């Protein structure tokens, strides 16, 4: 099992090449239409800006700079008693995150807040070496979380010195997924820049042996087990069925037809690629198992796993019947619109995510061990093998992972001296397994959302929101108001 | 006015070359004998170790490593209820700091402490590229405070995993001068590694406009004004006298003889070098104006400025008489032993400090503005000119300073969310002007030592210690005990 990215799931066996999504572009674009976005009510008006950033904040032998993109929305911002909500961008195009973080837009008026969305270096348009950014490990050398946090610090400094009225306002960091990790780490490392952080679905403990490597896939499995009778059992049985079918040319041909694959499977090794792609699909579904029709990674119906599981009620069927059922299930994810002509096993989600960048990050700092045993989870057994992983990283990027670095840098479980961080997690979200789901101190608090998938709380208000997410959001607003209030109280005391 | 290093004072006008101390080696070595060291009582027994460190903690394109040196003294260490005192080494040979930080040795038994002294990269024996370390800006690229802090984090991690009994012990960071800045910053950035920090004479605010650029030289001046009648006035008058004398060949020749210079002054430009060297001498004296005979930067009598000022009682004398008096005063600093045959204006202090390294650091991160106006201080007026400074840095190292980086990185004056840092400062120490001399919060506290020069509190107990430093040390021990106690109390609560 290889690099499991946070949003873009490059869920690969070692040795597999990183998929550079080539096709189905038309299909994807078709559905970025408004009927699937969750925000028809509020118009997201933002201005686009660029700041000149040092390529290397931590070394002086080069003074090279690049343009980092960021967005500003200040419709509800008040210079008097206002605040700045700062989205610490993660592995993708910042406009996509902006459009998928309706929570910030929903609370802007109440917090008199300016919204800022900062793009993460090496993603979207913020490419330190332009088209050459992913050329080799020398160009990728500056793709680290530390450099990204330093970008955020410089950007906040810049906003405070150039926007009249911004200087004396409290800034709050917000982010989801890897962006949530960055929000939490930013508060830990730059508490002089932000008064607090909302880290939504941030698996800051998905490293080394901080949590069991199997927990992620166990949560995926639980989601399927609870969403329909025999659902996870059907999936568990499907792997051997695929193994049997991919042994022969006839089987490969049949499978390619049955699954409507755009590119037919031609050899037994393709079987592994197929299984990886299907696994990733189930994982993605677990992440976006939202209670309403949505379009985050793909256009999907409400509670998509329930819909998927309607096709997977009976595990005790023939291999061919089981795989035909699996096709119906996959179709829920890949063809909710009904317009896809074939399925492409080289891609699983939106083009807005940067697969190359995350693949490199997973091979350097973001070394997240994953494993399965086929017993507590519905997948084929797969142990975590750092050496194999490392060799594959070296082959692909010329770098070796440093698995203990993130813990040394950011503290692992020993973070109780920090303050003002809210960690929110949805119980349906497999990433909650590596997240902070219990209060650490009075000011390092955990909010759990029983019916929530991956950072549901960051999404816009929706009529179908479960009560638990409404409660979570209102708690989050309360904490943010508290930080803002403390900031102004402490300023008044000084003057 | 150029780079003012913390201990090694490369106090240069822009355009002057960095002095690479060439001579008087025999003279210096002579006086590193026991009669001048302040610690004849306790034997400093330590073992020497090396740890393999990444040259670049913040990038992955190179996996190159180097050997960082560190010292361990564990005579009084107890595995049961003990602690680890970790000296965050600064710009010099770690053995020299070890020998000059008697305080740690004095409190080791009381705190059941293991002492660890970690050498700063690019100093002493800890050279990332061996003899080529200072060759060019490419080799120097990894000489930053962030890399040094990461070294410390990795070293502590290493000690905890390799020394049985160390794992569950509280670590406290200690340091003086730049080492004190590192101790404070280490607690700020890596609070999961150390329970607290003692930052002695740490001018963390000697950056940008956090304090007035003139404060440093004003304190130097005050030290001389208070140490004898007309003392600072004599020095103030000496600059013009030198200017007049260095205008002619006869004057240059006379001055070279009168000051017993090893290398005669040959042209008017040498006048500036001479003045810089004399200025540095007064600054150094202000730093080491200790109440007893000592040998930190040079072998010196007790209260050396008072001794110096005995020769500078009368400012209203002829130029030649004034300079003869200045020679007598300089002689206190450069020839307390009486064995120096001549004075070398290319050096001002011990060889244990790394002048090249600090010159580079001052040209990159450690951009400390200094200025004089000749009114509030006894020096020739000199304004802070960043552009000139930057150009000189570029000429010498091929790098440009980033004057606002340290504030962005470490918070400037906005550090109140951190905890457990004691900032100690001596009122006689010119670096106190850039230090924290007032409590920020209950756990970010300032200790001032009215009769103290540069980190007097870190020096070994001495019969001539003023009461104020004894009080400071006992407060420091009390805080450290509190941090250690809190650590063990919180551990007991968990189990």
UniProtKB/TrEMBL annotation, chains A, B:
Superkingdom of origin organism: Eukaryota
GO molecular function: dipeptidyl-peptidase activity; serine-type carboxypeptidase activity
One BP term from GO: negative regulation of systemic arterial blood pressure
Coiled coil feature spans: none
Primary enzyme class: hydrolase
Subcellular location: Lysosome
Family: Belongs to the peptidase S28 family.
Its job: Cleaves C-terminal amino acids linked to proline in peptides such as angiotensin II, III and des-Arg9-bradykinin. This cleavage occurs at acidic pH, but enzymatic activity is retained with some substrates at neutral pH.
Protein name (Swiss-Prot/TrEMBL): Lysosomal Pro-X carboxypeptidase
Organism annotation: Hipposideros armiger
């Amino acid at each position: 099992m290889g690099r499991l990215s946070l949003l873009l799931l490059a869920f690969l066996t070692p040795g597999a090449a990183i998929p550079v999504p080539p096709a189905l572009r038309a299909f994807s674009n078709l559905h970025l239409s408004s009927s699937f976005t969750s925000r028809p009510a509020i118009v997201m008006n933002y201005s686009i800006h660029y700041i000149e950033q040092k390529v290397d904040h931590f070394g002086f032998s080069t003074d090279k700079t690049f343009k980092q993109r960021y967005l500003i929305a200040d419709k509800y911002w008040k210079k008097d008693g206002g605040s700045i909500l700062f989205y610490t961008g993660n592995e993708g195009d910042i406009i996509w995150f902006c459009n998928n973080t309706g929570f910030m837009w929903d609370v802007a008026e109440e917090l008199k807040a300016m919204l800022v969305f900062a793009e993460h270096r090496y993603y979207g348009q913020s490419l330190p070496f332009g088209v050459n950014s992913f050329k080799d490990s020398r160009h990728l050398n500056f793709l680290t979380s530390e450099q990204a946090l330093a970008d955020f610090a410089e950007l906040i400094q810049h906003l405070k010195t150039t926007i009249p009225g911004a200087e004396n306002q409290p800034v709050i960091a917000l982010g989801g997924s890897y962006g949530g990790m960055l929000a939490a780490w930013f508060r830990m490392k730059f508490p002089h820049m932000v008064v607090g952080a909302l880290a939504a679905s941030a698996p800051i403990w998905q490293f080394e042996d901080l949590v069991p490597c199997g927990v992620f896939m166990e949560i995926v499995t639980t989601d399927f087990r609870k969403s329909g009778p025999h659902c996870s059992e059907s999936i568990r049985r499907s792997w051997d069925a695929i193994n049997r079918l991919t042994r022969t040319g006839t089987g490969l041909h049949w499978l390619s037809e049955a699954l409507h694959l755009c590119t037919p499977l031609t050899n037994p090794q393709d079987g592994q690629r197929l299984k990886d792609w299907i696994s990733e699909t189930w994982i993605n579904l677990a992440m976006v198992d939202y209670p309403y029709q949505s379009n985050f990674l793909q256009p999907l119906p409400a509670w998509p796993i329930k819909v998927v599981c309607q096709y997977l009620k009976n595990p005790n069927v023939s291999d061919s019947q089981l795989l035909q059922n699996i096709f119906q299930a996959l179709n829920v994810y890949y063809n909710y619109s009904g317009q896809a002509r074939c399925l492409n096993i080289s891609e699983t989600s939106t083009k807005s995510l940067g697969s190359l960048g995350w693949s490199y990050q997973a091979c350097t700092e973001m070394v997240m061990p994953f494993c399965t045993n086929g017993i507590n989870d519905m997948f084929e057994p797969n142990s975590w093998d750092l050496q194999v992983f490392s060799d594959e990283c070296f082959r692909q990027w010329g770098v070796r992972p440093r698995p203990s670095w993130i813990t040394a840098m950011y503290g692992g479980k020993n973070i109780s001296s920090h303050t003002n961080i809210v960690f929110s997690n949805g119980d349906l979200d497999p990433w909650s397994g590596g997240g902070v789901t219990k209060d650490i101190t009075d000011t390092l608090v955990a909010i759990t959302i029983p019916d929530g998938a991956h950072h549901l709380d960051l999404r816009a208000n929706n009529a179908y929101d479960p009560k638990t997410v409404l409660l979570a959001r209102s708690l989050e607003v309360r904490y943010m108001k508290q930080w803002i209030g403390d900031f102004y109280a402490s300023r008044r005391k000084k003057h």
